[in-house]
């Protein structure tokens, strides 16, 4: 079949966006993986699917597939691309929409300057809901947060890293590093992603503090590897820093692919993610 798609990115986190309202889409994980392949497919960190909502109170349904072909709960940068896509394609004339996702309803809004703000909902800290298995671990309180020790085995040597654990619709483990450029993201990211204490794997965040309103961040994403930006990862990092008493809202997050802004008023309140959403090109591929 011929599949029409749009290539987009949010701060360098790139997507293949597919209109499944006007096209019939029923792909296997292998087909999603092939489409995301950067040599034999279109190439993307994630594939975003626009569908009719099954929830009458929502405008659309939003599905996300990582480059390994697996479906995941949430993608903040993708949510910004989503709202820009449905506006550009004339699927809605509203600048603010409600979108059904696997992890709940989000509310992205297209701003006058072309950026997009997404109400990502309130973060989740209860380990069982992340999900995160705390059995055998002793958490260390810091501010209003709890740091959890993860033992990593590197070349036969054991190393312990302390992480903040939370969910932004998908699971995150955030650690503070002295220099994000020197952080062993490619080495320890996969070990954290597949750590036995995370039954559904986890996104591994490496955050460098610049000042109380500014951080630098790298994220090794579950099922995608390191990406140039991660929207939910930026939210998780800012929230973790605020809870630890290291940051104050709003927080500027510098990812390798661009800049994001995170605002959070505190416990029980939603996290607001603002950043760019760019259309790169339109295409058609035989699948």
TrEMBL record:
It is an enzyme of class 5 (isomerase). The record marks 172, 221 as: Could be important to modulate the pK values of the two catalytic cysteine residues. Substrate binds at residues 13, 46, 66, 76-77, 170, 203, 221-222, 231-232. PROSITE patterns: DAP_EPIMERASE. GO terms for molecular function: diaminopimelate epimerase activity. GO terms for cellular component: cytosol. Its main location: cytoplasm. Its EC number is 5.1.1.7. Pfam families: DAP_epimerase (PF01678). It catalyses: (2S,6S)-2,6-diaminopimelate = meso-2,6-diaminopimelate. Catalyzes the stereoinversion of LL-2,6-diaminopimelate (L,L-DAP) to meso-diaminopimelate (meso-DAP), a precursor of L-lysine and an essential component of the bacterial peptidoglycan. Belongs to the diaminopimelate epimerase family. This is Diaminopimelate epimerase. It comes from Pseudoduganella flava. The lineage of its organism: Bacteria, Pseudomonadati, Pseudomonadota, Betaproteobacteria, Burkholderiales. The gene is dapF.
């Amino acid at each position: 079949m011929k599949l029409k798609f749009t290539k987009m990115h949010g701060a360098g986190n790139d997507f293949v966006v597919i209109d499944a309202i006007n096209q019939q889409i029923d792909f296997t994980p292998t087909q999603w993986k092939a489409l995301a392949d950067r040599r034999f497919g279109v190439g993307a960190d994630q594939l975003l699917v626009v569908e009719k909502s099954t929830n009458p109170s929502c405008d659309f349904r939003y599905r996300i597939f990582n480059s390994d072909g697996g479906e995941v709960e949430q993608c903040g940068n993708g949510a910004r691309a989503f709202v820009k896509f449905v506006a550009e394609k004339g699927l809605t004339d509203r600048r603010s929409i409600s979108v059904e996702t696997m992890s709940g309803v989000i509310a992205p809004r297209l701003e006058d300057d072309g950026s997009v703000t997404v109400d990502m909902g309130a973060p989740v800290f209860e380990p069982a809901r992340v999900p995160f298995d705390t059995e055998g671990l002793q958490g260390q309180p810091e501010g209003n947060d709890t740091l959890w020790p993860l033992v990593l085995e590197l070349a036969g040597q054991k190393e312990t890293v302390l992480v903040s654990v939370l969910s932004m619709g998908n699971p995150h483990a955030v650690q503070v590093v002295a220099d994000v450029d020197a952080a062993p993201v490619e080495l320890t990211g996969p070990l954290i992603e597949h750590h036995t204490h995370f039954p559904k794997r986890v996104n591994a965040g490496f955050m460098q503090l610049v000042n109380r309103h500014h951080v630098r961040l790298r994220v090794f994403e579950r099922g995608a590897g390191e990406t140039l930006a991660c929207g939910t990862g930026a939210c998780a990092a800012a929230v973790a820093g605020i809870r630890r008493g290291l940051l104050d809202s709003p927080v500027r997050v510098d990812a390798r692919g661009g800049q994001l802004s995170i605002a959070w008023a505190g416990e029980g309140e939603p996290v607001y993610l603002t950043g760019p959403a760019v259309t790169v090109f339109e295409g058609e591929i035989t699948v």
